[in-house]
Amino acid sequence: MKLTSIQQKMLNGENGEAVRQSMEILIALGKIYGAKDMVPVTSAQIAGVSYKTIGEAGLEYLSDLVKNGAKVRVPTFLNPAGMDRDQWQKMKVPAEFAKKQILVLDAFAEMGITMSCTCTPYYIGIRPKLGEHVAWAESSAVSFCNSVLGARTNREGGPSALAAAICGFTPNYGYHLDEKRACKLLVEVKTPLKTNADFGALGAWAGPLAKNKNPAFTGLAKTAATEDKLKALGAGMAASGSVALFNAKGITPEWNVVEGAEKVVFTKEDLAATRRSLDSSDAPPQLIAIGCPHASLAEIEEVADKVKGKKLAHMLWVCTARETKQKADKAGYTSIIEAAGGLVVADTCMVVCPLKEMGFTCTATNSGKAGKYLASMQQQKVVYGDIDDIITR
């Protein structure tokens, strides 16, 4: 790889051991993928934040970086943690897990990372512009960044995103390059999509078909395809097929479909069948989990409207960014949800919480991403549907 003089000094250890180790990681990654050089990044998002995900070995790695003086050079934020630091007792998170999770968060804070643990940074003002290079790690955030914003990032691993944050660069390959952003699968949507669960189901259906081809969609109504719905679509594809970029005609800033792209059709029968496939339980859920990816203020308002004046039969979590929760608090949405028996929880997600250790075996969600990961990562029976469906189930 061709390195600048600044990058070479980093590799030589002139900026400290943590920087040297991080540059080694970036160079090794670049060599694997054939990168000729590096590009500067304007922000980074770190995955591997939940203690459930990284465990003791990950905590030890972070502690060593802190001891070696690691500090980030660009604005950096975190993926959701395994609990809400302020409400973990209300969530009934085991105390030993909470202790370890706090150590993980404190290690990241020592590096100068912003303590905003969210998969929807674009809701709290972190919105890279068209063509801007970043190093983001969480799958749905990567999809939104590449697709809806038109910025550029690969799906970084936790260590590579952290290395990019410490050095300020990332290898120039993959979705940073024009030629890798073309779409080779054209999906014609032949049925109206209305809800997050609909868009999430389309994502769950299209992800396995895409494989290594970026998908493009026609037939999506611009009025229905809000940012919240596009978030759900991208998240569903990322979870089911590791899709990191999609185009939607007349909606996303890029429309780059190769001539001769493979064509498939998504029908109302496909929608119904996919929704059924995500709904694996007839039993009442023990937990209703909304906000995967993290809920916007509008989505929290929708939940508040649905539960206002009611008493829920099951535990409800609405997961969101801390900044968004603060807005929901001021708007009165949080108090409405709490009065119904639910919680608005910040900086966490049902997918990375220790659900099994907390005694949950059946969880309801309106998220295509959560529907996939709750079953595979959390060994949950899943109740899938629109908000109305899962609240009254």
Describe this structure in words.
- It is built from 15 helices and 13 strands.
- The chain has 393 residues and is of the alpha/beta class.
- The chain folds into three domains: 5-178, Aconitase, domain 3 (2-Layer Sandwich); 182-275, no CATH class; 279-392, Aconitase, domain 3 (2-Layer Sandwich), CATH 3.30.499.10.
- A five-stranded parallel sheet has the order 11-10-9-12-13.
- The longest helix is centred in the first third of the chain and has 17 residues, at 17-33.
- 52% of the residues are buried.
- The model has no long low-confidence stretch (mean pLDDT 96).
Short description:
This protein is an alpha/beta fold and 393 residues long. It has 15 helices and 13 strands.
Number of domains: 3
**Mean of residue pLDDT?**
96
What percentage of residues falls in helices of 4 or more residues? Answer: 40-55%
The CATH class of the largest domain, by name, is: Alpha Beta
CATH topological fold name of the largest domain: Aconitase, domain 3
What's the architecture of the largest domain in CATH terms?
A: 2-Layer Sandwich
Number of strands: 13
Shape label: globular
What is the count of helical runs?
15
In CATH, the homologous superfamily of the largest domain goes by the name Aconitase, domain 3
Report on the biggest sheet.
5 strands, parallel
Order of helices and strands: HHEEHEHHHHEEHEHEEHEHEHHEEHEH
Radius of gyration, in Å, reads: 21 Å
